[in-house]
């Protein structure tokens, strides 16, 4: 976000290469990072802190030394694993034996879809995209869940009435409690006949997806706030 010059060493001339306008500076994306004290030992900012500090001070010799220390520790750790027969299993990367390259496991290479994609965020090292149709899928699944429970309730009530009619004498039918019980209800819905039907709580998948949607919603609110700060 500052001026960049090209310096010609032969003749000492300096040429302006990049000079961002105030409008460009205002459009700069806000940087979101994990607080240093909350980072684990192997996160880049913490792991390379001494190298970074030396570079910022302009001490190239110290930066090279610190870099060598880190790389030597990695070589020693790899040597110990080979000697102990321990296999290295990265959490977020996979090895391509054909190209001998490492690739991020959760890479999303599809083009961004403005009509469906809302925001992209990272959680526990995994990139995720919030999509508009996710809420629709959740709603459809929830509706299916409820309809299935209503169907089971109707069937249960019908069997209950059938047993009650066949087992109970007619003159005591109104004073005798049914042997069938209705599951403890959480909500009531109206069926096509206008009668209210009770149904059990939503399935585990619904609950899990609802919690996931709440987390995504919270992340989106944070992104929106950051966007507003950028516009200001």
TrEMBL record:
Compositional bias ranges of the Basic residues kind: 151-164
Polar residues bias: start-end ranges? 167-188
Pfam families membership: Oxysterol_BP (PF01237)
Source domain of life is Eukaryota
Which InterPro entries does this UniProt record tie to the protein? Answer: OSBP_sf, Oxysterol-bd
GO terms, molecular function: lipid binding
Region (Disordered): which ranges? 144-188
Write down what this protein is called. OSBL5 protein
């Amino acid at each position: 976000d500052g001026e960049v010059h090209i310096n010609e060493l032969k003749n000492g001339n300096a040429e302006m290469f990049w000079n961002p306008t105030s409008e460009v500076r205002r459009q700069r994306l806000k940087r979101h990072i994990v607080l240093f004290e909350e980072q684990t030992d192997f996160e880049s900012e913490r792991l390379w802190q001494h190298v970074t500090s030396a570079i910022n001070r302009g001490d190239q010799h110290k930066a090279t030394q610190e870099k060598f220390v880190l790389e030597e520790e990695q070589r020693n750790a790899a040597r110990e694993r080979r000697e102990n027969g321990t296999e290295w299993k990265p959490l977020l990367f996979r090895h391509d034996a054909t190209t001998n390259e490492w690739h991020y496991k959760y890479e999303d290479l599809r083009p961004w879809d403005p009509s469906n994609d809302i925001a992209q965020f990272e959680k526990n090292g995994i990139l995720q995209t919030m999509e508009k149709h996710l809420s629709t899928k959740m709603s459809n699944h929830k509706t299916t869940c409820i309809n299935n429970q209503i169907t089971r309730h109707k069937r249960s009530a019908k069997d209950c009435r059938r047993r009650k009619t066949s087992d109970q004498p007619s003159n005591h039918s109104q004073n005798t409690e049914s042997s069938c019980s209705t599951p403890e209800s959480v909500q009531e819905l109206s069926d096509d006949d206008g009668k209210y039907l009770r149904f059990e709580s939503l399935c585990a998948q619904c609950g899990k997806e609802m919690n996931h949607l709440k987390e995504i919603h919270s992340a989106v609110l944070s992104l929106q706030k950051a966007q507003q700060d950028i516009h200001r």
